[in-house]
Specification:
Layout lengths: L17 H7 L12 H12 L7 H33 L2 E2 L6 E2 L3 H8 L3 H41 L10 H14 L9 H26 L21 H18 L3 H8 L8 H31 L17 H37 L4 H4 L1 E6 L3 E6 H20 L3 H29 L6 H33 L9
Antiparallel strand pairs: 1-2, 3-4
Main location: membrane
Family: Belongs to the amino acid/polyamine transporter 2 family. Amino acid/auxin permease (AAAP) (TC 2.A.18.2) subfamily.
Keywords: Amino-acid transport, Cell membrane, Membrane, Symport, Transmembrane, Transmembrane helix, Transport
């Protein structure tokens, strides 16, 4: 008997012969998934190696040679460990042959249920909104950096070169409005691979420039085991708050649990999705950790305790200006792809819910074939067009109102790290494996969970304090200095 098809515009809803279903559709009746280890790794790298890498030299400057790398390794291990637990939760009750869960909320509903499903939805989708706002800010900063780099090269390093970032936020938003018409996550592989290549490119350029600066003749900067010095670089209270914020920045640098289930849902059935996802997590997390350690430590060696919050746009480097321009263009291109990786799950969530609730509305369910030159036929859905366009516009406007890079990154990282990367994966693993209460495994998993909660609260406090400080000196719609 053929599987029952879901009534949704995203999926085919026609009756087929049983053999055809087996050939062209997966065990849940949806179109056969084609994702591989390569595409999953590309999605992860696109999500992980993001704007966070640019603030790691600053983060290590706050924490020092000992605590900085230690925190980086700790977050990488925790992220990998909990991602393996989350990968096993994709199917329920068993990780190999159980029922598929298409979103993070579906996974929590299957394993935990109750009010935790709502809490998961709030945490995940608020995080996705926050990340897309953060990427709009960062992409515009990188675009502005290209103009400022050329200005400094032409007029000297002491020139003011004040340039507004708002026109570039608008340009970024227009690009996202177009790309947001890509129907779903399954069609994003090409964009993720391009974005992953861009992330490697600009991270490598930043690393190379840092090595050249650190190895330069007469290069002397102040570094220490504990980072910035109280009474010299910062006051006692600033040291505490900035250290907290640095922890939040590092947490954000590893954020991809919010989209892990959606990435796993793109994988083909054989070999088992959980096994492929674990291998992709190893590849993604180990690769990014290597880059993070290199960029963070060598960036700190190059700039010392005065490391800028974003070492490619904060003008720790002025020359060669063309290479810095190219790196910033790569950042912008990468963030164009990363924005889509993070917003597609949100798009899908809203559209599926609206389709279920108003299934008789032609505005929501009907699609119209449009011939696009060089691209073939594209199915236009009016609700998708209006809703996704409105979302991009709203996030761009919020980014214009709150253009605070480091503080915003830290707050996003702190707010999402504990619930989505630690708490839910651990609780679902305990439920799935039926781990006895107060057993050794249960106790150490709970200790890990509570420790990460304390770290997240501390990081959130540092970021909120930084945002409050920034707001005191903020003038809306002013140009960047």
């Amino acid at each position: 008997m053929a599987p029952e098809f879901q009534k949704n515009t995203m999926y085919v809803s026609t009756e087929l012969e049983s053999g055809d279903v087996q050939k062209n559709f997966d065990d849940d009746g949806r179109e056969k998934r084609t994702g591989t280890l390569l595409t999953a790794s590309a999605h992860i790298i696109t999500a992980v190696i993001g704007s966070g890498v640019l603030s790691l030299a600053w983060a290590i400057a706050q924490l020092g040679w000992v605590a900085g790398p230690a925190v980086l390794f700790a977050f990488s291990f925790i992220t990998y460990f909990t991602s393996t637990l989350l990968a096993d939760s994709y199917r329920s009750p068993g990780p190999i042959s159980g029922k598929r869960n298409y979103t993070y909320m579906d996974v929590v509903r299957s394993h935990l249920g109750g009010v935790k499903v709502t809490l998961c939805g709030l945490a995940q989708y608020a995080n996705l909104v926050g990340v897309t706002i953060g990427y709009t800010i960062t992409a515009s900063i990188s675009m502005v950096a290209v103009k400022r780099s050329n200005c400094f090269h032409k007029h000297g390093h002491e020139a003011s070169c004040s340039i507004s970032s708002y026109p570039y936020m608008i340009i970024f938003a227009v690009i996202q409005i177009v790309l947001s018409q890509i129907p779903n996550f399954h069609k994003l592989s090409w964009l993720s691979i391009l974005a992953a290549v861009m992330s490697f490119t600009y991270a490598s350029i930043g690393l190379g420039l840092s090595i050249a600066k650190a190895a330069g003749v007469g290069h002397h900067v102040k570094t220490s085991l504990t980072g910035t010095t109280v009474g010299v670089d910062v006051s006692g209270s600033e040291k505490i708050w900035k250290s907290f914020q640095a922890i939040g920045d590092i947490a954000f640098a590893y954020a991809y649990s919010t989209v892990l289930i959606e990435i796993q849902d793109t994988l083909r059935s054989q070999p088992p999705e959980s096994k492929v996802m674990k291998r992709a997590s190893v590849a993604g997390v180990s690769t990014t950790t290597l880059f993070y350690i290199l960029c963070g430590t060598i960036g700190y060696a190059a700039f010392g305790n005065d490391a800028p919050g974003n070492f490619l746009t904060g003008f720790g480097f002025y020359e060669p200006f063309w290479l810095i321009d190219f790196a910033n263009v790569c950042i912008a291109v990468h963030l164009i792809g990363a924005y889509q990786v993070f917003c597609q799950p949100l798009y899908g969530f809203v559209e599926v819910r609206c389709n279920e609730r108003w299934s008789d509305s032609k505005f929501i369910t009907s699609e119209y074939a449009v011939q696009v030159p060089c691209c073939g036929v594209y199915n236009v859905n009016l609700f998708r067009l209006v809703w996704r366009t409105a979302y991009v516009v709203v996030t761009a406007v919020i980014a214009m109102i709150f253009p605070f890079f480091n503080d915003f990154l830290g707050l996003i990282g702190a707010a999402s790290f504990y619930p989505l990367t630690v708490y839910f994966p651990i609780e679902m693993h305990i439920a799935q494996k039926k781990i006895p209460k107060y057993s050794f495994t249960w106790v150490w998993l709970k200790i890990l969970s509570w420790t990460c909660l304390i770290v997240s609260l501390v990081a959130a406090a540092g970021s909120i304090q930084g945002l409050v400080t920034s707001l005191k000196h903020y003038k809306p719609f002013s140009t960047q200095q």
